[in-house]
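Re-run requested by the PI after the first attempt was lost when the workstation crashed. Everything re-entered from the original request form. Ligand of interest: nicotinamide-adenine-dinucleotide.
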Amino acid sequence: MKSSEPVAVVTGGASGIGRAIALRLLAAGMRVVVGDVNAANGARLLSEAGDPGTLRFVVTDVAQEADVAALIDTAVRDFGGLDVLVNNAGVGGAFGPLTDIDAADWDRTFAVIGRGVFLGTKYGARVMISAGTGGSIVNMSSAAGLVGGAGPLAYSAAKAAVVNFTANAAVELAPHRIRVNAVCPGLIDTPMVMGRNRAAIVDGLPAVQPWPDLGTPEHIAGLVHFLAGPDSEFVTGEAIRADGGMLAWGPRMESAHDRTGATRRFAGFADGSTGRPTVKRALDGPSS
Ligand SMILES: NC(=O)c1ccc[n+]([C@@H]2O[C@H](COP(=O)([O-])OP(=O)(O)OC[C@H]3O[C@@H](n4cnc5c(N)ncnc54)[C@H](O)[C@@H]3O)[C@@H](O)[C@H]2O)c1
């Protein structure tokens, strides 16, 4: 029998962003089932999270259909249903020059990131559709899925697939009032990206991200909580960036043609090829 607290499943919830999401949804009063391949980190989460009555951990490989089916079943059996599904599990996957990537490593990357999101949505949506009470599915993509140059090739291609899958799933599931959105984080302080190279990454941050602070798992958990709940009721099919303005910075052409920063020291109006003169005033005093 389902009580009124929403039930959430979070994949990859034993570490980093997924762990922060699980803790955030628990703190918001939800009951949460975490699925992850890392049993040791799952046990740590269970022992640290407090009330065991509202949290379950299931060893799950999201690339395995039977595992994903069993994970969703746990939510139904133990907590009575499923309202929120966060397809978050991920790995860095295949890396190196594309001429040297093993096809099997390419497939494994897509198996975790692409197939994992598909399988979660397939089994999660089945439960939500048969309950008839709607739901929210959040898929973890990446800024790397939106442009080149933000992650390894196979990883980025798989994350791009997640964005497109999200749009089509949102359309297909909308009649059931099941929303499907993707989150595209930038650089986030988790073991996956910061593990070996934290100091160098923090050092290089100002060159790639305008926001002065490093992204945290909690930043992403806040956005997922919003997408999971009623405040985002009319939002579906979106891919929302949470990247400290990294992609908003774009190609930075201004700094290529204005190396001295002159455009910051004047204000005015450039009239282009109209024949009228450019009007400008120095910001420390009026001029034209
Ligand atoms: N950290 C970042 O900067 C960043 C940026 C953009 C997107 N992301 C995405 O956020 C998600 C979480 O990454 P994170 O940074 O927290 O990394 P993380 O390594 O801290 O956590 C990832 C979790 O996923 C689990 N996992 C891996 N493969 C799995 C599988 N086949 N089945 C089940 N669980 C599996 C791992 O065991 C781990 O607990 C990933 O999808 C990642 O691609 C991270």
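Saved to the shared folder this time. The radius of gyration is 22 Å.
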